[in-house]
Sequence to fold (165 residues):
Amino acid sequence: MSDFITTDEQKVKIYTIAATMKQSGLSDRFISSAVRLAEYYEGVFDLFELWAEEEGSQEKKSIIADIQEEIDEFREQPNEPLKKPYISYKDLEGISKDIRSYKDFLRSKVDKWGGITKLAAETGIPQPSLSRFFSSNSMPRRTTIYKIANALNLSEAEVIAEWAA
Fold:
């Protein structure tokens, strides 16, 4: 994070854009989290401005997904530097296949439960973010997995068992 601090004028701009986001159907939970982050993180402030200026719905959806990623990343930041294990380049393809299989498992549960639209409403995660989550082979964030698991009423054992399988 930077030392970015919004001016009163910038805060009003964020709130104005947030009102437009609300009118477009985004959830209060998402908007509230995004506004809090935009007030002191310039990258999210810039994404708000981009969203407001953008004409195309696909581009707006992509920007919303980017904002959600920033929110999730902020929530997962440790209080101090964290040493992570090294992953060998030769292991990446296998890991990618495991992630794809896991996301396909979760997606089938979501589809049986009621679908992406219902999941977006229940979790507060914007639908474009969920679509990106399920279509990519990127490592899922724990916060996203737990939100999905809670919405579907899955136990941690169910969530972890499939990941470890």
User: Anything to note?
Assistant: The two ends are 36 Å apart (CA to CA). Residues 8-76 form one domain. The first helix runs from residue 8 to 23.
